[in-house]
Specification:
By secondary structure, the chain is an alpha/beta fold. The chain has 19 helices and 21 strands.
C-alpha cells in the first residue's frame, strides 16, 4: 500500500520571520536562502502578507511590493507563493472598506502571488465573504480559514470540534469561492484530539477532492503531535519551517516532521539531505540577526493564555523598545481573564493584540479600569460577531468608556471608501497617485506616508560581527580607568524621569527616583488638563500644535504599541497649552503628553 504524500508549505520566510524577528528582516539578506529552498525541491512557499507587509514599510525601509517582485523573480514562474490576509482587515490592523479589499487582491496578484490564505479572528463568516470573492475575482487561489485555539481553563461555549464544523458549514452555505480550506491555530494550543476530530468531521462533509490544510505553531511544544493528528484525521497539507526559525514560536521543523512520519501511512516525499543543505543556507543568511530567547523556547503557559507565536515576539520586542519587558509574564497571565470575558475571538492578529493590550492595561492600571479602544470595539461588535457574547459587565464598561452602543450590523457597511482619502493624502504630499501608493497609504497610514516621503526609520535587530579578540584589543587601547575614588553621585534622566544614582567604591550601583522639583524652584507650570499616555508606546505623529483649539474626543497624537497604532484623544475642549513630546519619542503609561485648557 502506497503512502499518502502530505503537501507542505514552507513558512520560513513569512511566519518564521514574524514569529522570531517580529517580521523585521531585509530582503537582501534572505533571498539566497530562498534559492536554496527551491533547489531542495520545495515548491510551495509563504512569501508575504500578514505582518510581513506593514513591517517592511514600518521597520525595514523597503516596499513590500518590491519584496514580492524579487521573491517571484528568485523562485521562477512555477513555484506557488502564498500570502496571509485577515479578512476585511486584509494586511492592515484596522478594517478596510470594500475598495481597499478589492485593491489588496488586485495588487497581490500583480506582484506575483499565487494564493491568499484568508482568515477572520472572530470566525464571523460575513468578514470572509467579500474578501474571498475579490481574491477569486482577481485570479488568485483563495484558501479560506477556520481559526482555532484552545480556551483558558473553565471556559466553554466555543472552540470545540463541533464549533469549527459549524463554521465550516456556514462557509459552504455562504457559497464563498475557495480553492482549499485551512484550519489555522496561531497559538498552537488546540489539543491534538480536537484537531483529529475536526479534520475527521470536515473530511466527511466536503468532497474528496477538497484540499484540507492545517497550520499551527510550536509555542507550547505541541506542533508535531497536532500535525500528526491533522494528517490522521484527513488533512492533505501542513505548514512547516526550516532552521533556524523552526520550532518555538514558529512552525515545526521539516526534518523533524519527516522523522515523525516514519512508520506511518504518510510521507512528505522530500529528500532530507537537500532540506539539510537548504537549512544550512538559511542559517548562514540569518547569522547576523538577533534571536530573542523567547522565540526559541517552549512556553507551556500559552495554553492558559493563549498567545500566538507570531505576536509573542512582536510584543516582546515592542516591550524591549518601551522598557517594559519585566511585565511580560504578568500580562500573559492576565490574558486568560481578558480572553475569558471577551467573547472567545481567536487569539490571532488583530484580536491577539486586542487581548494583549487589554491585559497590559489590566496589569498596569487595574482590572477593567481602562478599556483599550480596540478591545472595547470588539466586545461591542464593531469588528463582527464574537463567537459567544462577551461578558455583559465588560460590554457595559466598554460602552460607557467608549460612549458607543452595541453594534450588530455588517462592519463593512459603516466604512467609508478608502481610495478617495488615500488619493487626497498623496496629492497633498505631491506623491504619484498609483495603485501601489494608494494601498500603502490605506494600509500603513502615517508610516506608509513616511516611507513614500523617504522618512522611514529602519529598526532591524542584528548582532555585531565584532570578534572577541577585537574587543580585547579595543579594551587595551581604551582610555585608562580613573583612579579609585569615593562614592559618586549622579542624576540621570530616563524617559523624562530623573533618578539619583550612587556608585560605591566597590562598584555597587543604587538608583532611586529623584524628588519632584518643588513648585517654588520650578518654572511657572502651565495650568490645564493633563493628557497622559494610556499605554507605553512610540509617538508616531502629533496631530495638533500649541495654540490649536480642540474639542472633546479630538485626536491629538498617534501612538504605536504592540503592533497597533491608536489615537489619544482630548478629554475636554479648549486650547493646546503645551506639548510634552516629540515625534519618535518613547513614552510610558501615564507620561504627560499634552496640556489642554
Amino acid at each position: 500500500m502506497s503512502k499518502k504524500v502530505i503537501q507542505i508549505m514552507d513558512t520560513s520566510f513569512r511566519d518564521g520571520f514574524q514569529s522570531v524577528f517580529g517580521a523585521r528582516v531585509l530582503t537582501d539578506d534572505f533571498l539566497p536562502a530562498v534559492k536554496a529552498t527551491v533547489d531542495a525541491g520545495i515548491t510551495n512557499i509563504e512569501a508575504g502578507g500578514g505582518a510581513r507587509f506593514q513591517s517592511l514599510f514600518f521597520y525595514c525601509g523597503e516596499s513590500a511590493f518590491d519584496m514580492m517582485d524579487r521573491f517571484r523573480a528568485e523562485v521562477g514562474p512555477d513555484v506557488a507563493l502564498q500570502t496571509l490576509a485577515r479578512g476585511i482587515n486584509v494586511v492592515a490592523l484596522s478594517q478596510c472598506p470594500r475598495d481597499i479589499i478589492d485593491l489588496h487582491a488586485k495588487m497581490f496578484k500583480k506582484h506575483g502571488m499565487t494564493t491568499i490564505r484568508n482568515f477572520d479572528a472572530l470566525n464571523d463568516v460575513r468578514n470572509l465573504e467579500y474578501s474571498g470573492e475579490r481574491i477569486d475575482h482577481h485570479g488568485l487561489n483563495h484558501q479560506v480559514v477556520v481559526s482555532m485555539m484552545d480556551l483558558p481553563p473553565g471556559c466553554t461555549g466555543a472552540h470545540t470540534a463541533e464549533f469549527y464544523i459549524d463554521r465550516l458549514k456556514q462557509i459552504l452555505a455562504a457559497d464563498i469561492p475557495f480553492h482549499s480550506i485551512c484550519f489555522k491555530d496561531a497559538s498552537g494550543t488546540s489539543n491534538p484530539r480536537k484537531v483529529f476530530d475536526t479534520f475527521k468531521a470536515a473530511r466527511e462533509i466536503v468532497s474528496d477532492d477538497t484540499i484540507l490544510w492545517f497550520h499551527t505553531h510550536d509555542t507550547a511544544g505541541l506542533a508535531i503531535s497536532q500535525n500528526l493528528a491533522a494528517v490522521e484525521g484527513g488533512a492533505d497539507g501542513i505548514d512547516l519551517a526550516k532552521a533556524p526559525v523552526s520550532g518555538g514560536t514558529c512552525q515545526a521543523d521539516i526534518l523533524s516532521m519527516i522523522h515523525a512520519l516514519k512508520g506511518t501511512d504518510f510521507t512528505l516525499d522530500l529528500d532530507y539531505e537537500k532540506i539539510l543543505v537548504a537549512s544550512e543556507a538559511f542559517e548562514e543568511a540569518m547569522k547576523d540577526y538577533f534571536f530573542p530567547p523567547e522565540a526559541k523556547m517552549i512556553s507551556p503557559t500559552v495554553t492558559l493564555s493563549p498567545m500566538p507565536g507570531g505576536a509573542l515576539t512582536a510584543n516582546t520586542m515592542m516591550m524591549r523598545d518601551t522598557g517594559t519587558l519585566h511585565l511580560y509574564a504578568d500580562v500573559i497571565k492576565e490574558m486568560s481573564e481578558v480572553v475569558r470575558r471577551g467573547g472567545f475571538g481567536t487569539s490571532v492578529t488583530p484580536v491577539s493584540q486586542f487581548y494583549f493590550q487589554q491585559a497590559y492595561l489590566n496589569v498596569t492600571q487595574g482590572r477593567w479600569k481602562k478599556i483599550n479602544p480596540s478591545y472595547g470595539n470588539m466586545v461591542l461588535g464593531y469588528f463582527g460577531r464574537t463567537p459567544v457574547p462577551a461578558d455583559p459587565e465588560i460590554i457595559k464598561i466598554a460602552s460607557e468608556q467608549l460612549e458607543k452602543p452595541v453594534f450588530t450590523e455588517n462592519p463593512l457597511d459603516i466604512l467609508e471608501p478608502g481610495i478617495p482619502k488615500a488619493t487626497k493624502i498623496l496629492e497633498e504630499n505631491n506623491l504619484p497617485v498609483n495603485d501601489e501608493n494608494l494601498f500603502i497609504i490605506a494600509s500603513c497610514e502615517q508610516k506608509g506616508l513616511d516611507f513614500l516621503l523617504g522618512n522611514a526609520v529602519t529598526n532591524i535587530r542584528k548582532i555585531t560581527d565584532e570578534k572577541v579578540a577585537d574587543k580585547k584589543e579595543a579594551a587595551k587601547t581604551a582610555a585608562p580607568a580613573p583612579a579609585a575614588i569615593g562614592p559618586r553621585d549622579y542624576t540621570i534622566t530616563v524617559n523624562n524621569r530623573p533618578y539619583n544614582v550612587t556608585v560605591s567604591e566597590a562598584g555597587g550601583v543604587q538608583a532611586t527616583p529623584a524628588a519632584a522639583v518643588t513648585p517654588a524652584a520650578a518654572a511657572d507650570p502651565v495650568k490645564g488638563t493633563e493628557v497622559e499616555a494610556p499605554t507605553p508606546g512610540n509617538v508616531v505623529k502629533i496631530l495638533v500644535e500649541v495654540g490649536s483649539e480642540v474639542v472633546t474626543d479630538q485626536p491629538l497624537v498617534v501612538l504605536e504599541a504592540m503592533k497597533m497604532e491608536s489615537e489619544v484623544k482630548s478629554p475636554c475642549g479648549g486650547k493646546v497649552l503645551a506639548i510634552h513630546i516629540s515625534a519618535g519619542d518613547t513614552v510610558q503609561s501615564s507620561d504627560p503628553l499634552f496640556t489642554v485648557g
